[in-house]
Specification:
Chain lengths: 332, 332
């Protein structure tokens, strides 16, 4: 049976009432690439925006195998037990291939997924051109409007999405493993530099000593590399998601961050900058997506790319030619 | 006396003949923001492009005080003595304020500047929106067409220009100092990660031990952080630009890199990707610069920014409104 289409008002009302079904449908709406849906989504977002923002936004990243699901499951359980309403948004680049759903995401975080105080939603990576940034940020805002006051955004720590996520969260947490030879291998350059905390997971059983050694090693390395403008010195911690140790300390650290950054004004200032950047990012996204989706432009680029690469054609002359052509077609 | 304007043919011929005066005027032409000059510059670039590319392109960066001028002066002297023709392009963000010339640039590298086998040119940072990237890359190509077969591009190591420069060079060298407390302080996040070699300068006199210690420290840190796709493991070296020690070793290392990367195909492959990226960057630059230079858009943004920042207006809705408006004005 085909679901009845909702009106903008129904979306807004449902989300503001904290109705999970409507929230899910609203996120599906903003992820839609259909032109009509896009217009509707924009109206929903505009109505909902004034009711958003009242959460702490936490980015969680780490390579596959680091234990992100178990971490989020048990860290999340701790938060809901403390009375928080938790939304988890997971960005998986592979979901582009599987049409927007992370296979087994519900089973991945079974106990959290069945907990009414938490809401878990996979977010499609949405291709290039700022897709991750736009859709995930909007999903986060919808969750906030629905009353969730902690939002965890999970990424896999191997690509561009971390930079996008950094631009929309208040706190960025990197999960790592100890004892895998070169400790920081496998993590993309630059990701460590932008984290507010580095947490060594699986610090249990025979792993405890290695985790403590890794903690020292990372502390030294971070000490070399970091100098944050907000006065926060990135923390290195250990935890065992499985044994549920170290999780409370992590939350205490985030609370400390939250308090300090609220007091020194960085928290609100950061959010203001994020909102302005969001507009500029979206302008860039719209300009570029309209350009690259133009059929004539697509065809021209495909035709000229080999000569550009070999250096037989001038990259700048062709760029100008294409932009001139694009502007001209807009006026027809 | 006003200089006679050159024709496109005169520019091209002069540059290809290696005439330094014409080369300088051609670089001034491509740096011009006048609409007529831009068109002419594009024609010059197009004619000259097939004669470019036959150099090794080296980015040199480091914070102020690290001794870049002395390094380039004496490293450059070594290269010209070996028979290379050297062009040095210096990007100085401060030159925006001083109208495009680095004050004292000639005196900075006095002996190299008076050497006919070398050519030194300050490059204005050229504001935001990809200015550095576009102009410096074009200046580099003009130098190559004029017969220079080693191009050094100097940046100050504190900003965005390094990323732009990384996208146009074959080899990226970071100069550092030892013994200044936290060794990597002051260098922007991410810059260390993209270097192919890290050279500790001023390893002379009482500094030698500290430089060696720093070398070990950096080696360990880089070992933790780096995993290059081209199979190159970033080297850490020491030198004294003043005492002219270690400079030959640096050139040998660059030659080794050059050879390996030519053999494994990375060199040409990297350049092909750089040319394609150049086109995409320039497309972005043109789209955004036309957008943000639009008078109506400027006015609108200034008007709405406070409400965007405070979250009272939706960043995405306003972005779409602005882009729609821009596209509409193009058709008028």
């Amino acid at each position: 049976m085909k679901k009845k289409r909702l009106s903008v008002e129904e979306y807004v009302k449902g989300v503001l009432n904290g109705d999970r079904v409507t929230l899910s449908r609203a996120i599906t709406l903003i992820e839609s690439t259909l032109s009509n849906d896009k217009k509707m989504a924009e109206k929903v977002m505009e109505s909902i925006l004034p009711f958003s923002g009242k959460s702490i936004r936490i980015g969680v990243t780490g390579v596959p195998g680091v234990g992100k699901s178990t971490f989020i499951e048990n860290f999340g359980k701790l938060l809901v037990d403390m009375g928080y309403k938790l939304a988890v948004l997971a960005i998986d680049p592979s979901s582009q291939k599987t049409h927007g759903s992370i296979l087994g995401d519900k089973t991945r975080m079974e106990s959290l997924a069945s907990d009414k105080r938490a809401y878990i939603r996979p977010s499609p990576a949405g291709g290039a051109l700022g897709g991750v940034s736009a859709k995930t940020r909007e999903a986060m805002i919808l969750c906030e409007a629905a009353g969730f006051n902690v939002v965890l955004i999970e990424t896999v720590g191997v690509g561009q999405s971390e930079i996008a996520v950094k631009g929309m969260v208040d706190f960025f947490l990197l999960l790592m493993l100890a004892g895998a030879g070169d400790e920081l291998q496998g993590i993309k350059k630059g990701i460590i530099e932008m984290c507010d905390a580095l947490v060594i997971n699986k610090a249990d059983g025979e792993n405890i000593d290695a985790a403590k050694r890794a903690k020292r090693e990372y502390s030294n390395a971070l000490h070399l590399f970091q100098a944050k403008e907000n006065g926060w010195f990135p923390k290195v911690m250990v935890c065992s998601s499985l044994k549920k140790t170290g999780l409370e300390e992590i939350w205490k650290m985030i609370e400390e961050y939250w308090l300090k950054m609220s007091q020194n004004g960085f928290f609100e200032n950061n959010r203001q900058e994020q909102r302005a950047n969001w507009m500029h990012e979206h302008i860039r996204y719209l300009l570029e997506s309209r350009f690259y989706q133009d059929e004539l432009i697509k065809e021209k680029i495909q035709h000229m790319l080999p000569d550009i690469k070999s250096g037989q054609q001038s990259s700048i002359a062709k760029a100008r030619e294409l932009v001139d052509l694009f502007m001209k077609t807009q006026s027809e």
